[in-house]
Amino acid sequence: MTPAPPGHRGGVDRYTRDGLVFDVRDGGPSGGEPVVLLHGFPQDSAAWTAVAGDLHGAGLRTLAPDQRGYSPGARPTGRSAYRLRELTDDVLALLDAAELGSAHVVGHDWGGLVAWALGARHPERVRTLTSLSVPHPAAMARAMVTSDQALRSYYIALFQLPVLPERLLLAGDGAALRRLLETSGLPPEQAGHYARRMQEPGALSAALAWYRALPLDARDPVGRVRVPTLHLWSTRDAALGRAATEQTRRFVDAPYRLEVLEGLTHFIPELAPARTAELVTEHVRAHR
């Protein structure tokens, strides 16, 4: 299990759901407003270490799970195990394990999609929603046919193929994935950490199963969001363009704020932790 970040004072280090065991970084003041931090691909809860430290300093408690496929004890096989409703139910189980009726939910990349689904389908469990990088999925769908978003998302089609993506990304004992992450802007230490995690038995296939389950969710769209929402997008994000970002507010029936981070690539939590924590703290305090 990955160690808890500074400020940890006990709480939920692990929780179970349907026989799966999830690792969690639970830190900060035990009585602070709870903030759930959901990582993306191919990261893990370590993506939030610096952000969480600043949130703890602001008096907030954080719970950052290694999500389905990323926790060694939660790697079921088969793409159906990675449908969006399974991923959101994992977060609800975390809230139950922490004895929390609701929490502020922050997600980056795939974690952002889980956050959107939680805000739409379980607004009673979500005090506020913050999505880093990822637009509302309905806005994403529209942008795929009205902008260059389909070209930006070419890798999603590649990831549908069996075996080949694993071979390509793990070539050279993970060196190919590490170089790709460094090219995307991550510092070598963090890129190396994620590449090593993806070399664990079954880890990369489980992480790719999130993408491979997308066709199964096509008839189960995420609806309109009804909780206060903060959306962060960075201008040098090669995977996610401006069109979907600007259309996202159309799918939020609640206070909505867009913050554009100039000059940053996709990995906002690692590259701008102080600004991320500042914006999340403001959002939490504005909607207690």
Notes on the structure:
The chain has helices spanning 49-57, 84-97, 110-121, 137-146, 149-152, 154-159, 164-169, 175-183, 188-198, 203-212, 242-247, 268-271, 273-286; strands at residues 14-17, 20-27, 34-38, 61-65, 103-108, 126-132, 229-234, 256-261. The chain is an alpha/beta fold and 288 residues long. The protein has a single domain, classed as 3-Layer(aba) Sandwich (Rossmann fold), CATH 3.40.50. Strands 1-2-4-3-5-6-7-8 form an 8-stranded mixed beta sheet. β5 (103-108), α3 and β6 (126-132) form a beta-alpha-beta unit. α8 (175-183) runs antiparallel to α9.
List descriptors.
16% strand; eight-stranded mixed beta sheet; 8 strands; Rossmann fold; disordered N terminus
